Automatic annotation (TrEMBL):
Keywords recorded for this protein, A-Z: CBS domain
GO MF term set: magnesium ion transmembrane transporter activity
UniProt GO cellular component terms: membrane
Organism: Streptomyces boncukensis
InterPro entries tied to this protein: CBS_dom, CBS_dom_sf, Mg_transptr_MgtE_intracell_dom, MgtE_N_sf, MgtE_transporter
Matching SMART domains: CBS (SM00116), MgtE_N (SM00924)
Limits of the CBS domain: 150-218, 219-276
Designated name of the protein: Magnesium transporter
Length: 288
């Protein structure tokens, strides 16, 4: 056993076992969720998800319960399916619905698709209709197709919008980088499914145009959109062939339904256990 020397008064040395010394470190078992949250506060969602994955089920539930809805939603989007289902199942139905509303619609749809039908419908019924409707539309598409992978919330602009307006939308810090890479020009309504899809504009083109120019005058109409039934291999080839990070999904009537981004494609191309390869929890927190 490790030993340490303590000096008594008068110069006499007393040697004790290290295990007998207390107060210098906090036992892992005594670390509450609040202490863990303070430790994880600066972590990116993907890194926090990696840590949660390696915690014990009990501690994982404690941390999830202490996170606010938006933060928990971001972390759930980065977790394996089993962990998502486990954490959501430990939340009260009302809070589970709130967290699903805070998730990106495509991620919420992926999570709900893992649940039993009765539970899925119960949670959808608790969500606000404006939040639940896009998720229901995504659930109607076959898994692994452009319709099933797309997000229904790309940047949509009318043709009479200015380049300055388009760049202001692109600068939104809450927008994922692949979605900010290009804007989609459509006739009203602006929400998906939109009016007639006219084309897209990459943000590099926007940077080259004067701010007062109308997006309708610089729109790219040459890149063909994808139908919602496009398979994953065809979708992958499309992104690679045109060197783009997102692709428009348009129905037979010419309405924009959403956009598929490269990160969602990669999630489905990588092995199911790809997150395991990212490494374990920080030292001292394994199975905490």
């Amino acid at each position: 056993a490790r030993g340490g020397a303590l000096r008594r008064r008068g110069g006499e040395t007393l040697t004790v076992d290290w295990e007998a010394v207390t107060g210098f470190a906090l036992e892992e078992q005594q670390q509450g969720a609040a202490n863990l949250l303070a430790t994880f506060d600066q972590l990116r969602p993907a890194d926090l998800a990696n840590v949660l994955h390696h915690l014990s089920e009990k501690r994982r539930a404690e941390v999830a319960a202490a996170l606010h809805d938006d933060r928990l939603a971001d972390v759930l989007e980065e977790l394996p399916d089993d962990d998502q289902v486990e954490i959501l199942g430990k939340l009260k139905d009302e809070r589970a619905a709130d967290v699903l509303e805070a998730m990106a619609p495509d991620d919420a749809a992926d999570l709900l698709s893992e649940l039993p039908e009765e539970e899925k419908e119960r949670l959808l019924g608790l969500m606000q209709p404006t939040e639940a409707d896009p998720v229901r539309r995504l659930l109607a598409y076959e898994e692994g197709t452009a319709g099933g992978l797309m997000t229904p919330e790309p940047i949509v602009l009318r043709p009479d919008a200015s380049v300055a307006e388009a760049l202001a939308r692109v600068r939104n810090e809450d927008l994922p980088a692949p979605l900010a890479a290009q804007v989609y020009v459509c006739r009203p309504p602006d929400e998906t499914p939109t009016g007639k899809y006219l084309g897209l504009i990459h943000f590099q083109r926007l940077l080259r145009e004067p701010p007062f120019a109308l997006v309708g005058s610089v729109v790219d109409t040459d890149l063909r959109p994808l139908p919602p039934g496009t398979t994953l291999p065809a979708l992958t080839s499309y992104l690679a062939a045109y060197n783009i990070v997102s692709a428009p999904v348009v129905d037979e009537g010419g309405h924009l339904l959403g956009a598929v981004t490269v990160d969602d494609v990669l999630d489905h191309l990588l092995p199911d256990d790809w997150r395991e390869a990212r490494g374990g929890a920080p030292p001292g927190l394994e199975g905490a």
